[in-house]
Design goal:
CATH class of the largest domain: Alpha Beta
Distance between the termini: 33 Å
CATH superfamily of the largest domain: P-loop containing nucleotide triphosphate hydrolases
Shape: elongated
Number of helices: 10
CATH architecture of the largest domain: 3-Layer(aba) Sandwich
Radius of gyration: 21 Å
Length: 276
């Protein structure tokens, strides 16, 4: 299990404040929020690239602060930026950095590079942005981490590879021993992949929980504006347009007016109306 307890970090004027969660093995967590919400900062803290000012992180009961090297062995990352030697080939990069991981296997790296359509003889610096992320993914999987941290990778993948990417993630957690945190703006990927959801805004945690429970707390309702206003304090945010009004509302269990159209929100609707 991955456990975060009141994790906080101040960077210049930005404050990531009191993030707490528990993510069981075998599940994928979607991390959402607008640009600048703190998603990348949070991933960097979990990866051990930044130190939290307050709070603690444990993976399988082991403290990142107390046993950093042991925890980092179990974390694979797919982050943006040139994290490998641009002058060297993919295979040599993999073997150079793989020696720092006790479970690294060259055969595993080759297998994933082939699956992802990467030429192991090609120099890292000659890769496109999407190919660099594919290589980072192949390398991360080659050292068999228990936790995979993905920072907005899928937006740089073509449609065909995104299908493969989703299958790889499902296979990765299928054994019930691994976890994934996927930060993405593609809310459709969260709908299809994620079991848990963390929504942060301005460095603060707005929502966390398993997807079904989170969605169960809310409903979308559409119809005449005055009928939505009758829901009073159940309304989180309402918008009106030429063809009527719609609102995100708390699902209190009370019945809705039969004239209203009511449905469970998508992740995109939830994020949009909560942001508003």
């Amino acid at each position: 299990m991955l456990k975060l307890e009141t994790v906080s970090k101040k960077r210049n004027t930005f404050l990531l404040d009191n993030i707490s969660l528990e993510l069981p093995e075998g599940y994928i967590m979607g991390l959402i929020g607008e640009n600048g919400a703190g998603k990348t900062t949070l991933l960097q803290i979990i990866a051990g690239l930044l130190s939290a000012d307050k709070g603690g992180i444990r993976l399988d009961g082991i403290s990142l602060a107390e046993e950093e090297a042991a925890v980092k062995q179990e974390i694979g990352t797919v982050l943006h930026g040139d994290l490998f030697d641009v002058r060297d080939t993919l295979l040599r990069n993999g073997n150079r950095y793989g020696r720092f991981y006790r479970h690294y296997e060259e055969s595993g790296l080759k297998e994933h590079m082939q699956k992802f359509g990467l030429d192991s003889r090609k120099k890292y610096g000659r890769l496109s942005k999407g190919e660099k992320l594919k290589f980072a993914m192949a390398f991360a999987l080659s050292h068999k981490p228990k936790l995979l941290l993905l920072d907005e990778p899928a937006a740089n993948f073509d449609k065909e590879f995104r299908t493969l990417f989703m299958k790889v993630l499902r296979d990765y957690v299928a054994g019930g021993e691994n976890h994934v945190i996927l930060s993405t703006h593609l809310t459709s990927d969260i709908d299809m992949l994620a079991d848990y959801l963390l929504f942060i805004k301005g460095g603060r945690q707005l929502l966390y929980g398993d997807i079904e429970s989170v969605r169960g707390r809310y409903r979308m309702a559409a119809g005449e504006e005055y009928k939505l206003k009758l829901l009073k304090d159940r309304v989180i945010h309402m918008e009106s347009g030429e063809f009527g009004s719609r609102a995100l509302v708390y699902n209190s269990g009370k019945p809705f007016d039969a004239a209203l159209k009511v449905w469970e929100p998508s992740i995109e609707e939830l994020m949009y109306f909560m942001e508003k």
